[in-house]
Write a structure and sequence with these properties.
The complex is a heterotrimer of chains A (about 300), B (about 350) and C (about 400).
Chain A: H1 2-32, H2 39-55, H3 61-84, H4 92-114, E1 130-132, E2 135-137, H5 139-161, H6 163-173, H7 175-180, H8 185-210, H9 215-219, H10 221-232, H11 237-262, H12 270-281
Antiparallel strand pairs in A: 1-2
Helix pairs in contact in A: 1-5, 1-8, 1-10, 1-11, 2-3, 2-4, 2-8, 2-10, 3-8, 5-6, 5-8, 6-8, 10-11, 10-12
Chain B: H1 13-16, H2 23-42, H3 45-70, H4 78-94, H5 99-117, H6 127-149, E1 157-158, E2 162-164, E3 167-169, H7 174-193, H8 197-207, H9 209-214, H10 219-245, E4 247-248, H11 255-268, H12 273-300, H13 305-326, H14 331-344
Antiparallel strand pairs in B: 1-4, 2-3
Helix pairs in contact in B: 3-7, 3-8, 3-10, 3-11, 3-12, 4-5, 4-6, 4-10, 5-10, 7-10, 8-10, 11-12, 12-13
Chain C: H1 2-16, E1 26-33, H2 40-61, E2 64-67, E3 70-80, H3 85-99, E4 101-106, H4 109-122, E5 126-128, E6 143-145, H5 150-164, E7 172-177, H6 181-184, H7 187-196, E8 200-206, H8 215-224, E9 228-232, H9 235-247, E10 253-256, H10 263-269, E11 277-280, H11 292-302, H12 311-329, H13 335-342, E12 370-376, E13 381-388
Parallel strand pairs in C: 1-3, 1-4, 4-5, 5-6, 7-8, 7-9, 9-10, 10-11
Antiparallel strand pairs in C: 2-3, 11-12, 12-13
Helix pairs in contact in C: 2-11, 2-12, 3-4, 5-7, 9-10, 12-13
Amino acid sequence: MDFLLQLLVNGLVIGSVYALAALGFVLIYKASRVLNFAHGDFLALGTFVAFALATSLRLPVIPAIILTLLCFFVLGLIVERVVLRPLIGKEVIAVIMVSIGLSSVIKGVMYLIWGPGYFLFPEFMPDVPIIIGDLYLSPVHLLGLAVSAAFLGLFSLFFKRSTLGVAMRAVADDQQAALSLGVSVRKIFAVSWGIALVSAVAAGVVVGSITSLSTEGLSTIGILVFPAVIVGGLDSVPGAVVGGLLIGVLENLTAGFIDPVLGVSLRSVVPFVVLVLILMMKPYGLFGTVEIERV
Amino acid sequence: MQFSACGNYKTRYVDEATIFPNDTGRVLVAVLLLFLATLPLWLSPYLVFVFTLIGIFIVGAVGLNILTGSTGQISLGHSAFMGLGAYATGLLAQAGLPFWLAIPVAGAVAAAAGAFFGIPSLRVKGLYLALATLAAQVILQFAFNLFDSRGGGTSYLSVPQATLGGLVLDRERLFYYVVLVTAVLAVFAALNLFRTRIGRAFTAIRDNDRAAAAMGINVFAYKLLSFSISAFYAGVAGALWAYASGVVSAERFTLLLSVEYLAMIIVGGLGSVLGSILGATVITVLPEGLRVAADYMSQVLPQATHLFLAMRFAVFGLIIVGFLMLEPQGLADRWRVIKTYFNTWPFRY
Amino acid sequence: MRTASLLALVIVALISAPVWAQDVPTVKIGAIVTYTGPTSDVGAHYGDGIRDYFRWLADEHGGIVDTNFGRVRVELVWTDDQYNPQTALTALRRFVSEDNIIGAITWGTGANLALMDELNRVQVPALSASFHRGLLDPPGQYNFFISTNYDNHMRVLIDYAVSQHKGSQPPRIAFSVHPSPYGRSPLEAGRTYAEQLGLNVVASQELPADVLDATGQVLELRRAGAEYVFFQNVAQPVSVFLRDARRQGLRAQFLGIHYAGGEELLHLAGRNADGFITTSAAVTWDTDVPGIEFVKALNARYHPNVAVRPPHYTQGVVTAMVLMEAVKRASAPTGAAVKDALETIKDFDAGGLTPPITFGPNRHWGADSLYLYRLDANQNRLVFLGEFSPNYE
């Protein structure tokens, strides 16, 4: 029983990271119908920038992270303006391809600056497990969970309460209607990118402090986000959160119960099997908008 | 001397469907093929191998273009189908099947898998479907990796050289001709596909699947057909790759290759067979060229190695992004513009 | 600014390139190593070792070497294969047909398996960083490696675990490997050997290289009650595992093969890696052997800002030395002659950097023994435990 509980807790920790990453991904999709294949790379880049600020400039960890988040908000605006806006109205596949190209560019930049090695965030809190009964809880994991939850809470508040957040939802819902109500769709697109990158970097920093930093390792989260968003529904923000948590838990349950039987690691592939099943049974995910086509 | 029309004066559908409007095109293609056939006689084995790779990826890219460019279904799993073809070939070749039988059988295996992973297209389309193919990629890649571990001590598939009636088609020169012939067959099959009911049905589905259904096209059946034709091409490309490299291992058939395939048809031009050829050539030669350049530069300047290694990624990405922003219709369209310019010269209007 | 000065350097280098003297013939060596992509964290050290050695050769001696077939200039051509076998294969074909290389140095298991047939066909010997048993099967082909194979590394670790074991019950052991031919290669041998010795194999699991969270794997081993865990993996996933092991209270002795341990693991896992046992084909940075001064000088000369290197850098340097030794002994500037020369190498000693390396016509693994180290986090160094050889074969 405690084995199961332990797996569940741990799944939630990792799942919350997926949820954060998926959140940004869905925001971009909602705003501009772009599947952002560079999401994982932005995430990795942001984590590395925070790391560099914390180590090279010797900033304390928290200000370094906040500074990085600000930088990436601005970077999101720039990317949207320079790369994505000229492509409005182009075929979907062209836009996908641009994000793939961007991902390659970012990889190049990361290899250029940091090379292929692994790095560690400076430790900022003791990492001795808290033992409750048979349950081991790591403070770093708990902090990660708390930070992810805080970010998710902030974002949901932002979408519910702030004018900008409501405007973003309006644009996602119906662009024409939003335009006619005086919402600047352009601005919303740009802000979506900014916020999406912020959430990606937040996820990256959490992962980075739980584990370690590497170009390859961090950018794979960009691929793991896909099952999460499909489970939740591509265009649903709460769906992304639920999907992310579900995938995290599922991975851990697989690692705990199925892998030992087979002796091979299925945990990385199970989310994708789920993806196919979901697509076959409930194509628009748990919360996604069912596209109704009228001729 | 042949003249070409300066506008569209075709009066019959048959004219519209011809591949070559006049003999000039036929002659040019024949000359080009003859030229390509002489390559192994005077090029170094390495360059012949590069051309062999180009030929292989042309087959794959033409296949992807049938699915993505002409039927409008984005696939992120093309390299997995190629891998399936390669593994099938490895097994068949080890079982002693001649290459001319192993290649189409490998294609058929891939086609079956392609149809299976096309089933979600019954319910979903567009980006959702793209993600289904992404899942196909991840799952098949996982299976390839697992296959290694079950392969006994060797853990990879060794593919014997192809032989034709006692003649060994060595990987350095002669196998190039197999690839050349296959690529030519693949290209002409694709060109002809679009002259048939099937090809027109594909285009109708791409442009508007509801309207296509209203016209009496069985959309689902044709989508599956498109998936399997495309996977067949990928399987054949995988089979050729298996013979050309002599060994099949899982590390080759990654998501990155699927992405490169997409890059090929986008750089070349969506829905255009010529575009697939140009795109496959560019995307095969470009990384290799960048690599050779980076290798050379870092040999001259060893202290800047990381700069050149990183540049390879960055330049590749920049070229793709730049291309889409400046030349979104692809190389095929640029080629058409150039051709029109000369066709109508000096009277441009 | 940095870019501008680099550009200037490029131009200067390009202009000065043709001035080199052309009086002695040139022979080329090819290196196909991994600087980007999977395993590049370790691969880059190995690649640097090889390249620094040849840079030193070029800078100090103009690349001039006296061989049995006369005085030649040796040049290194190299590429980054990104851990992609096709890239490695294309590179090998390029090096063979454009550069006429007479010997090669390669990196990962995947690429080497892909290159095997081709190496035999073009008759160029390759020294690989992979110690996969399958590379030497059938024996006497063109693949060589300087250590003993992974199976023997695993057997030494199992022997060590048995020797350390206290208690009346047989040790409960588990394997955790990289999901690839590289990772799985010593699994079968390790399992068979453990069963022969009467050990209790409680689990065998896979740990992907890009793993972010190994709690599932750790919990599995905790539940199975593993006392000894054997890794065949690279440092990063092992470090993730060790950290989660401490967080989840898995108390076991952890042991790893060559690429799992070393200074990187200490750097990545810190005190979580304390007590980790690793095999190594080469000595560590602070080992007091005659050869290490040269290796340190090489690193200081070309990478002044890198203070400590893992044994894989030294391994790269030694591999380059062994190949150069064969080039010197070769009767002709051909790959086949270099292969024959490699097979004459007996008890090659690179100043104690590795155990003595001996090759023969049917013996293409270099050393029969290997080093064992224990990672000590408090002193931040690797403690030498001794030189061991497998009690097997």
